[in-house]
Each structure stands twice: as structure tokens, then as C-alpha cells.
Amino acid sequence: MRIAVLGTGSVGQSISAKLRALGHDVHIGSRTAGDGKHTYADAAAFAELLFNCTSGGGSLAALQAAGENALGDKVLIDVANPLDFSKGFPPSLLVCNTDSLAETLQRAFPKVRVVKALNTINNGLMVDPGKLAGGEHDLPLCGNDAAAKETVKSLLATFGWKHFVDVGDLTGARAMEMYLPLWVRLYGTLKTADFNFKLMR
Amino acid sequence: MRIAVLGTGSVGQSISAKLRALGHDVHIGSRTAGDGKHTYADAAAFAELLFNCTSGGGSLAALQAAGENALGDKVLIDVANPLDFSKGFPPSLLVCNTDSLAETLQRAFPKVRVVKALNTINNGLMVDPGKLAGGEHDLPLCGNDAAAKETVKSLLATFGWKHFVDVGDLTGARAMEMYLPLWVRLYGTLKTADFNFKLMR
User: B2-190 in CATH: which number?
Assistant: First the structure.
């Protein structure tokens, strides 16, 4: 599959490495091309499916740089969190409660099929869920397009994900992004980023 | 132990019934006395320890009615969530991100030893955690007073709680309250309120 990974940080690096290991043709999108990277616009135009791994505060600008024509009605997996580190650690959120980053991106590009996923875990675990409890833990996701969610589940299953929890339409991204403060607190208590929740019911 | 349960809704009813079954002397606090209920002020004056089971939007007024003298430096277990149902379902939060209900109460009554706990689960599970996965799931809590957190853990252990996750000082209540939107979404997906998370690490 031709996939664009927007963002060159640790999350983008982990995901692009995993996708290449799985045999996909990956273009990494950045503000400027070079060093094996493409521009946001070139990466988006190339791709059949995109991962948004930019920082939350820069995600809208990254998609605007990619452009509406290049994005089209492609599936965009929004991995980003709208974290605000301007007042130090722990971060607060740039948007929450009655809105979310994923909805902000969806409003700006109504045709793109945004699926929120993977934002609730650390990048190492995103691409190797089996290293924790044999993969017996849960990945929430949400989005407005049912077919897009199935595409995402199929792709992430090849990463090793076994258990998805579909929390509904894209307004569920508020809930998924508002989990981040608890993730940050749990990280402080557990002293490891390699954790996730298993839903007991 | 002499315990006040502030609030007469389903959460207050579940907790007061459990405490009485465990042999505690419980006064239920309400806006008005009668029908086996006491005023907030009388219940608070009677108690050695308090549960805040009022609705989040009414919690500050309930504690103000209880009064600073009656509250003293007692341990207050804040079970409430600042849910705003004014725009329907799902609810948003009345306060979040850079503040929380628990911190609001603590600021108003600096001597009270507020511990946030039990707000992340349904009332049936609060008082009978063993009915789910043999109690193998996690209860986050936080607060500024270490001794108060130990008191709360000891009391909740008698409810059947085995696994506590101390997420630090009371600013952790932001994270614990901001988990509620995800709880609400998971409730919609799982079609049961009897669920909780087990932390896999």
C-alpha cells in the first residue's frame, strides 16, 4: 500500500519503520523535503492512506500544507494529541471537552475520512502491541466512516493489534484525547510508557 | 466509624448501604432533613470521614452548607464528577483541563483532606469490585495528603478493592475527571456499566 506518514518525530519514525517492515511503500511528509523526506503535499499526493503523526499544535497547518486536492477522500489515521507544553509538565490540552483535534481536522477537510486511533499509547507499543501481555489489551478508535474504520482495523491488525473498541463517531475523539492527562499521570506512577488498559467487563 | 455520605442519589445510596453493611455508623446528608436523612451540616458535624456523592454541579454548595467548622480537617472522598447534561447526552464537563472539581472543593476548604476516588466507575461496582474479574482491575486515586490516601485505601479495601493506582497530588483529579467522557463512550459501546480497566504493564 502507498502510505504517507506526516511528521518526523518519534511517533512518525516508529510507524514508518513498521510500515516499511510490513512491505508498504512509505513517503514521510515534512515541512521541507530532503534527507529521504518529502513535503507534506508530495507525501499526501503519493499516498492511498495517511497517518497524522505531527504534533497536535501543528497538525492543521500540516494538512493545510498537504492541501485539499492531495488529501481527497483518503483515510487519515489521526495519531496526534493536542498537548500544550507551554506551561511545562504535565501538559494541558489545546482543545478538549466540546471539541477535539480530530474534529478540527475533519471540519477543515470534510471529505477526508478521519479515524482517531493509536493516540492512547506510546509509540513503541503502537507498532508492537504483542510485547505487552501478549497483545491482550484494548485499542479505542472512532470516526464517522464505517468503511474507513474497517480499513484501519485491518491495517493495525497487521501490527499485532487484536482488540479494538469502536467508541463511535468522531466526537468520540474528545474522549480519546481527554484520556491523555490520565495516561501522563499513569506514566508518572508506573515509571514506564509501555502500558495500556485492558477492559474488564 | 462515623461516616457522612453527602448526596442521596444512586451513588450515595449504594455507598451508605455498603458502609452500614460493614458496620459503620452512617449519616446521610441532604439539603433538608427528614426521612432518615440529616442536613449537610449535621451529617458533616457527626462524621469522622465524609463521602461527597452529590452531583458535581452542586458539590461546592453542599460543602458550603456543611460549613467549614463541621468539615474541619476530615478526610473527604470526592466521588463526584462535574458532568454537564444541559446540552443532553453525552455530557461535557463543567470544569476540566487546567482545573477540576476536586481542586475547586479543596481551594474552598483548604484544611479538608480531599481524596479523589471511585469517580471512574459505576456505583454498583464501587461497592462490589469483586463481582468483576474477581476484583482484578484498577482504581486510581489522588490527593495532597499521604495519610488521607492511606485511610481511603484501607476503607475501600474493605469494599473489596485490591488494586489502587496513586496518581499523585490532587491535580491528578483533572486526569481522573477527564476520563469520564471515555467512560461514557465505552458504556455506549460495551452496553454495560459494569466495566473497569486493568492496567497491563
Answer: 3.40.50.720
